[in-house]
């Protein structure tokens, strides 16, 4: 009887080790910190009632190929991951927003907990007249990225900075969608940042 209990506990222990080795934050990667992303705001507890994303803001990983592929409309900020759906909740346009000026130079910053060989980073902004209370769709974004940084398989640093320019001629509340395409997998990381353009 004692031998059966020990064997059972050993098997249970191995199962737990396997579970922790293959799931959870072992797949963590990165998020934008400037302009501050929704997942970073949740992680810092600046925004409450965020669900699971507050514990793993670096894990918003979905299919790459945006805008032709990738997460479905309405699920862009969560990367299409159901447990991070709070990121897609527009909260009536009440997410805290970074104050910026259209046309200004700006350093876009990613914090990469686990850097990967990278194809590119690309940044999109909402069109004039978009509805900040409606779920984010491709139609709400300008069709072309305003900034693309090609890596060609190179490895970015843990603190990755992309100098760019905020698109000119825009004002009011907008949203920036940043996408990080991994080079050697089918995935990308997504981050939404709310901005107020003066």
Labels describing this entry:
198 residues; alpha+beta; Coagulation Factor XIII, Chain A, domain 1; 6-stranded mixed β-sheet; 3-stranded antiparallel β-sheet; 2 helices; 30% strand; globular; disordered N terminus
Just give the CATH class: Mainly Beta
End-to-end distance: 74 Å
What is the chains' assembly state?
A: single chain
Radius of gyration: 19 Å
Order of helices and strands: HEHEEEEEEEE
Strand content: 25-35%
- Give me the CATH fold name: Coagulation Factor XIII, Chain A, domain 1
Q: Sheet bearing the most strands, described?
A: 6 strands, mixed
User: What is the number of helices?
Assistant: 2
Low-confidence stretches: 1-28
Count of discrete domains: 1
Write down how many β-strands occur, each being a DSSP E stretch of 2 or more residues: 9
Overall pLDDT metric: 87
Which structural class is indicated by helix and strand composition?
alpha+beta
Anisotropy-based shape: globular
**Helical amount:** 10-25%
Descriptive overview:
The chain is α+β, with helices and mostly antiparallel strands and 198 residues long. The protein has one domain (26-197): Distorted Sandwich (Coagulation Factor XIII, Chain A, domain 1), CATH 2.70.50.50. The strands form 2 sheets. Strands 2, 3, 5, 6, 8 and 9 form a 6-stranded mixed beta sheet that branches. It has a 3-stranded antiparallel beta sheet with strand order 1-4-7, with no helix packed on it. A hairpin with a 4-residue loop joins β8 (172-182) and β9. The radius of gyration is 19 Å and the shape is globular. It is built from 2 helices and 9 strands.
